[in-house]
Specification:
Layout (H helix, E strand, L loop, with lengths): L13 E4 L2 E4 L1 H6 L13 H11 L6 E5 L5 H4 L4 H7 L7 E6 L12 E4 L13 E7 L10 H11 E12 L4 H8 L5 H8 L18 H7 L5 E7 L10 H13 L7 E7 L2
Parallel strand pairs: 3-4, 3-6, 4-5, 6-7
Antiparallel strand pairs: 1-2, 7-9, 8-9
Helix pairs in contact: 2-4
């Protein structure tokens, strides 16, 4: 089993003030609607977690796969983001696993387990109604990918959902990340996104990040739904010209090459 801490790659660029969250100048300039509630019409976080919440009810048991330290619970977020992500307050329980012992400090988990790479998920068959993997699949190695898919399906109840958000291998983020050697990722991201902590940056693999890979790893009779999404280009730092260039590129990019894949698999 391979999991790692998530990196919220398309959360809005934010600043904090004495009154709490406010959009950064770059976000506010290019997406003025962010002044209404703190999120934009392109917000991938809202898109993904609205759909996740629609699959949950008070009786749901959830596994956060690659839960890490719970970065979202520490960083400033719009109130809508906080509500959508705080589903642990509205379900029966949320537990988490990760290869990093930072998961033990995650304040949103009822139970946290450190699981070495290549090891089974330490929960019984058909335990969970939903398994979440938010920006995790891109870190799974080629050798571990089949086991990760198999373990996720094993711990899901029949009819349960695996919900994942991950970069598209052939999208702008995926291509860009794969052109940068893993040992330089921290340095490059420090320039593009000064607010990102080094402990939230991890090597990328991209073996579960195409529609073909996902069809192979989650074959019939499971129900696989995948669609592309392109969010605000926060990966371009705070440069307005860079954001505009990325926006233009997004507009001419075919939907199948959208930067992010939203992945939903129903166990049959």
């Amino acid at each position: 089993m391979t999991a790692t801490r998530r990196v919220e790659m398309d959360s809005p660029d934010v600043e904090t003030t004495e009154t709490g969250f406010s959009p950064s100048p770059t976000l506010a300039r290019l997406y003025p609607e962010a002044s209404v509630g703190g999120y934009t019409r392109r917000d991938g976080f809202v898109d993904f977690y609205t759909r996740v919440n629609a699959l949950l009810d008070p009786s749901s048991e959830v596994l956060d796969f690659g839960a890490g330290r719970g970065q979202w619970a520490h960083d400033p977020m719009p109130a809508t983001h906080t509500f959508l992500r705080s589903f642990h307050e509205r379900v029966r329980r949320v537990v988490g696993v990760d290869v990093d012992d930072a998961v033990i400090s995650n304040p949103t988990l009822e139970d946290a387990q450190v699981v070495p790479s290549g090891s089974p998920i330490p929960y019984a068959d058909s335990t969970f109604d939903l398994v979440l993997a938010d920006y995790v699949l891109e870190h799974v190695t080629e050798s571990d990918a089949p086991q990760v898919a198999g373990e996720v399906m094993r711990v899901l109840k029949p009819g349960g959902w695996f919900c994942a958000r991950t970069p598209n291998k052939w999208g702008l983020i995926g291509v860009g990340a794969r052109t940068v050697p893993n040992d330089l990722h921290t340095r490059v991201l420090a320039r593009l996104q000064p607010g990102r902590k080094a402990e939230d940056v991890f090597p990328v693999e991209y073996h579960m990040n195409t529609r073909r890979d996902l069809r192979r790893l989650f074959p019939s009779p499971h129900e696989l739904v995948v669609y592309g999404h392109s969010s605000e280009p926060t990966y371009m730092g705070s440069s307005v010209p860079a954001w505009r260039a990325a926006q233009l590129l997004d507009r001419v990019t075919p939907p199948r090459l959208a930067s992010t894949l939203m992945v939903f698999v129903r166990k049959r």
